[in-house]
Amino acid sequence: MPLNLLTNGKKQGRLFVVATPIGNLEDITLRALRILREVDLIAAEDTRHTRKLLSHYAISTRLVSYHDHNKESRAPELIEKLKGNWDIALVTDAGTPAISDPGYFLIGKAKEGGIRVVSVPGACAAVAALSISGLPSDRFLFVGFLARKKKKRTEVLQGLKSKGMTLIFYESPHRLLRTLADLVSVVGDRSAVVARELTKYHEEVIRGSLSEILATLSDRDRIRGECTLLVEGRKEKEFKSDELVVDELERLAKEGSVSVKDAVRTVAGKHGISRGRVYREALRLWAS
Ligand code: SAM
After folding, report:
1. Burial zone of 227 (CB within 10 Å; 0-12 exposed, 13-18 middle, 19+ buried)
2. pTM of whole model > 0.85?
3. Which of 148, 168, 226, 227 to mutate to test the pocket of ligand 1 (most atoms within 8 A of CB)?
4. Domain chopping of the chain, boundaries
5. CA torsion, points 196, 200, 205, 206, in degrees to nearest 10?
6. Which atom of ligand 1 has the smallest separation from the CA of 127?
7. What angle do the packed helices 275-287 and 260-271 form, to 10 degrees?
8. Are 41 and 86 spatial neighbours (Cβ–Cβ below 8 Å)?
9. Tens-digit pLDDT profile for the chain (288 aa)?
10. What number does CATH give the domain 126-231?
11. Which of 170, 179, 199 to mutate to test the pocket of ligand 1 (most atoms within 8 A of CB)?
12. Ligand 1 centroid vs 172 CA: distance in angstroms?
């Protein structure tokens, strides 16, 4: 184990960013266990939750809470300790800290304070779900949680519509149906995967089009557990036909003599696509 970094002649502690399991307690690396055992303090999002993991591995390192509601007051205390040569491990409830959880804030402060931040990689729900999804994984876009407000959600989804790569969302079980429905109406009925309760007893992977998954899940009394949703990116073919549609609508809009309704009927008919899809684009063009 190397000596702690020396900054201005002073010894400093290190902040270890430690990935923990997303369900199955065996999904933790040997190095993570050693670091959790050796550090002076573990900053945990939920100390009760992390204590279960530590007890499973007979680790008795001291824990302190660090979560979304105390991050602003707790981070400076932790930075002081790091500057005073404490080695600290940061863990969150599941997976890799800073991926859609409050970890990012402390890491940012550590960076500002010139503290050495060390990665101890491991599980991450987004990567675990992508790796078994069967969707294109050469390029992907991690979206995380969508905004709750309808207007903001729609804006974000509109912005994602043209992305030609797999989209990854984290979603709470009680908002999943709404998100699936919003996706169908904004990005269209694409291939998708819902990975629920990965690595846990009730693990389930549902594949199909967004509307098929929506139908499957709508039949249930209640959706439980943690869910990651993956949606196929926009296909090249879709791009081309949409570009043609927009070009033709633009031409008709410039002519000025054609009504929105007639333009929509002409273009939708020519390309054999739904009028609703063309209508949205036409309204935008005729309004501009
Ligand atoms: N930092 C974590 C990571 O590396 O995956 C994610 C933290 S975020 C607060 C929690 C979200 O991750 C859940 O709402 C769910 O969308 C996803 N998630 C966590 N555990 C999961 C699991 N076992 N199966 C599917 N999705 C999971």
Report:
1. buried
2. no
3. 226
4. 5-123, 126-231, 236-287
5. -50
6. 5
7. 140
8. yes
9. 444 545 555 678 999 999 999 999 999 999 999 999 999 999 999 999 999 999 999 999 999 999 999 999 999 999 999 999 999 999 999 999 999 999 999 999 999 999 999 999 999 999 999 999 999 999 999 999 999 999 999 999 999 999 999 999 999 999 999 999 999 999 999 999 999 999 999 999 999 999 999 999 999 999 999 999 999 999 876 766 677 888 888 888 888 888 888 998 888 888 767 787 788 788 878 876
10. 3.30.950.10
11. 170
12. 9
Atom of ligand 1 at shortest distance to CA of 103? 1
Rounded to the nearest angstrom, the distance between the alpha carbon of 109 and the centre of ligand 1 is 24
Pocket test for ligand 1, best of 20, 22, 145, 175 (most atoms within 8 A of CB): 22
Query: Of all protein residues, whose CA lies closest to atom 11 belonging to ligand 1?
Result: 170
CA of 108 to the centre of ligand 1 (A): 21
CA distance 157 to 232: 13
Q: Give the tokens for residue 148.
A: 């709750």
CATH superfamily placement of domain 5-123: Tetrapyrrole methylase, N-terminal domain (3.40.1010.10)
